[in-house]
Amino acid sequence: MVEDDYTLIPLPNMHTQNLIVIIEYTKKHGEKTNSNEEEIKEFDKEFMKDKSYQNMFELVIAANYLHISDLMNLLCQTIADRIKNKSVKAVRQIFGLINDYTPEEEEKVREEHTWAHEGNEIDESLD
């Protein structure tokens, strides 16, 4: 006779919905083989498609806590891709950062790092 061994795993500040999403991800990636690599890439693309920034931030914290590095890398890459070419103002809003620079300090930084703005179309949207 096999006895059920119930071990409580603490998951502080993790929403049930995020845990369901993480389980979905790990199940699919558990099926990963060389022959279905394209299928996994398509799954990842679809998996990230409609995630909000807030949801991705929560999932990054959960993936880090659970040591699921592939998911954490996917989330971080998706966030990086989405903020690429965003204006400083938009990135601040996305991450909930307060601008503590004076206009003079901001102009000085912009002048010192003109390379960061060259050839880029600045995207003001928050999506």
TrEMBL record:
Alphabetized UniProt keyword annotations: Ubl conjugation pathway
- Subunit details for this protein? Part of a SCF (SKP1-cullin-F-box) protein ligase complex.
Q: Which residues are in coiled coils?
A: none
Under the heading Gene3D superfamilies, the entry gives: Potassium Channel Kv1.1, Chain A (3.30.710.10)
SKP1 component dimerisation domain span? 70-116
The entry's function note states: Involved in ubiquitination and subsequent proteasomal degradation of target proteins. Together with CUL1, RBX1 and a F-box protein, it forms a SCF E3 ubiquitin ligase complex. The functional specificity of this complex depends on the type of F-box protein. In the SCF complex, it serves as an adapter that links the F-box protein to CUL1.
Question: Per the record's keyword annotation, is Magnesium included, yes or no?
Answer: no
**Which regions are flagged for Basic and acidic residues bias?**
107-120
Q: Where is this region: Disordered?
A: 105-127
Decide whether keyword Transport is in the record: no
Please list the GO biological process terms of this entry: protein ubiquitination; SCF-dependent proteasomal ubiquitin-dependent protein catabolic process
Q: What pathway, per the record?
A: Protein modification; protein ubiquitination
What name does UniProt use for this protein?
A: SKP1-like protein
Q: Which domain of life is it from?
A: Eukaryota
One CC-aspect GO term: cytoplasm
GO MF annotations, alphabetized: cullin family protein binding
InterPro entries this protein is in? SKP1, SKP1-like_dim_sf, SKP1/BTB/POZ_sf, Skp1_comp_dimer
**Family membership noted in the UniProt record:** Belongs to the SKP1 family.
